[in-house]
Structure formats: structure tokens, C-alpha cells
Write a structure and sequence with these properties.
CATH superfamily of the largest domain: Medium-chain alcohol dehydrogenases, catalytic domain
Distance between the termini: 18 Å
GO molecular function: oxidoreductase activity, acting on the CH-CH group of donors, NAD or NADP as acceptor
Pfam families: ADH_N_2 (PF16884), ADH_zinc_N (PF00107)
Protein name: Enoyl reductase (ER) domain-containing protein
CATH class of the largest domain: Alpha Beta
Domain Enoyl reductase (ER): 17-328
InterPro entries: ADH-like_C, ADH_N_2, ER, GroES-like_sf, MDR_fam, NAD(P)-bd_dom_sf
Bound molecules: NADPH dihydro-nicotinamide-adenine-dinucleotide phosphate
Mean pLDDT: 96
Order of helices and strands: EEEHEEEEHHEHEHEHEHEHEHEHE
CATH architecture of the largest domain: Alpha-Beta Complex
CATH topology of the largest domain: Quinone Oxidoreductase, Chain A, domain 1
Structural class: alpha/beta
Amino acid sequence: NRQWILRQRPRGLIQPGDLELVESPIPDLKETEVLVRTVYLSLDPTNRTWMNDAEGYLPPVGLGEVMRGLTLGVVEQSRSDRFKVGDVVSPMSGGWADYAVVGEDGLRAVHRFPGLPLTASASVLGMTGLTAYFGVTDVLKPQPGETLVISAAAGAVGSIAGQVAKQRGARVIGIAGGPDKCRWLTEELGFDGAIDYKNEDVGAALDRLAPDGIDLNFENVGGDIMIAVWNRLNVHARMAVCGLISAYNATKMPPSPNFSRIITHRLNVQGFLVMDYAPRAREMVAEMGPWLADGRVKWKVHVDDGLEGALNSLNRLFTGDHDGKLLVRVSEE
Ligand code: NDP
């Protein structure tokens, strides 16, 4: 069983030597445990934050421990009455490994939506979709005609969040890196505007695309991009703080916005975590499933083959060198 072990805390982008791929024996199963073969490993920006020795929403991964990660896999052996060999499951703490031994309480059965591939369950109908869907419908609650700006808009969460907001009648502007991603947003996903932050002045583009200001912000990036949006938020604007990816590799914190706008513009700024919405996954699948099945909402996955490449794959999230939800295929479905 190959496992990625955290050896030292990275500084900046992950370097070879920060984690090590080691071979370990698979322990015998105890009562109620199952052995899960990893099929897909989900790589998420937050993985990088778990490597830091800092206070977070979960404890940091310890040095010498298997790297934590969300996985989707197949039960290969079972000593549980609730899960049988062949079941498709998502362990809460599968980790970066070929196999994981998991207690039945740490497992969730994966229900496949008819007509959609397993990669959908690992992305748009999994954690990514849950984040996008509830970040929009529960945190932002867009009203028809309101103008919403999303950063990292062509990414896994951003692209879905924008389309959910379109379904609720909002005007959606996305910020993304590069002309191809921006074209995808406006020409295929139906965004009302896109800003290529790598080649355009974000503030000037916002003034052009949102001349009446911004009512809603789904924030994924932070730093200068967030500040450009913040300085254009309208009175009573609402902001869902989903992620601050520009800070995850930073050795020096990016600049922050001026908080006095919260008072002067009576802003409603709310952070949220996807895990709080896990009990409501069925609600999301019930509304999004049909949108995906009939093509109203489009989604992409970027699949890299091989657990051995997971480190290089993770860095793609910080360079933008991926197209859609980033997954590693660890073994065949
Ligand atoms: P994405 O698929 O969006 O990948 C990350 C993208 O972020 C990259 O493709 C890149 O896009 C962009 N990016 C990276 N670094 C920077 C930077 N310095 N400045 C501007 N853009 C940058 O990942 P996810 O959809 O999985 O995650 C998106 C955000 O949502 C993250 O902040 C993540 O932490 C957050 N999140 C929060 C959750 C929660 O519970 N609150 C749950 C899941 C995700 P580009 O090519 O456009 O630059």
C-alpha cells in the first residue's frame, strides 16, 4: 500500500521532500472496519492549508502522518454489517494512499446519479457541488437582477456557483486567469461577463461590467482581487467568503480590505464551510442532478493518472494549470 507521508512543513509551493511516498503493509481488519481501494483522490486547495502548523477548521496533518485527503473508492474487504465488498464509498479520512482501513462510522455510501459518471460524484455532486450550491442558495441568496462577482470563477467551485446563481436569476461576472477560461465562462456557461485578471486591470474591468456596483461576492481568492471587488460593493451587499487561495502558499499575508466599508455600506460578510452542509447533500443532488443531466449546468473534471504524481498535481491548483475539478485516478473504476 503506497502512502504519501508528510515529512516537513512546506514553505510556498510544495517541493520534493516535503512529502514522501512510502510502501506500508495493510493491517488486518478489526470488527466493523472495511478496506477501501482508492479510485479517485480529490485534490483541493485546502489540502495545502492542512500541511501548515496553524489553527484551522481541522487539526494540521502531523509530521510522519499519511496526508489527509477526500477520496472515493470501492470496498475490497469488509467486517462491517453496513458495507459490503463492491460498495462505492467515500471515506471521511481516506488519505493519499492506494488503500485505507476505515471504521464504518467514518464511511459514507456514494449514490450515483443516473446517467452521470462516477467523476460527477467526486466533484459536482460531491464536495465541490455542495460548496457551490449552498454558498449561493443559503449564504448569498441571490435575487433576480442582482449583480454577483465570483473569483476563481473557472475553477471547480466557482464555475458551478456562477451557474447556480444564473439559475436564480442573478447577473454573474467571473474573474479567472487567461482568455480560454474567460471564453468558457461567457460562451459556454452563460456568464454575463468575465475578467482575465492575468491580462486586465480588474478594477477597470469591474467598472465597465458592473457600472452600478456589485451586490454579491462569492470570494475564492482574497488579496488584490478581493480588494478590487470590495471597493465596489454596494450598500447592503452580501459576501460569501468561501476561500482565500492567494494566501495558501504565501509566506507573507496578502493585503486585506478596509473594514470600514462594512459599516459605511452595511455589508453582510459571511464565511462558510462545506462540512456544515453535508447533512443537506440530498437537497443539492435533487436540484442539481436534473440540471446536470439535461446540460443546463456544465462541469469539467481534470483527471491526472497515478498516486505517484499527486504532489505535482496539487500544485496545479495554485498555478491554474488545470481545467475543472482536479482529481487523481489512483486505480481503475
Ligand atoms: P479550483 O478548481 O478553483 O482551483 C483553484 C483556482 O484558483 C486555480 O485554478 C486558479 O484559477 C485560482 N488561483 C490559484 N491561485 C490564485 C491566485 N494567487 N490568484 C488568483 N487566482 C488563483 O479549486 P476549488 O474550486 O476546489 O476551490 C476554490 C476555492 O474554494 C478555494 O479558495 C478553496 O479553498 C475554496 N473552497 C472552500 C470550501 C469551503 O468549505 N469553504 C470548500 C471547497 C473549496 P485561475 O486559472 O483562474 O487563476
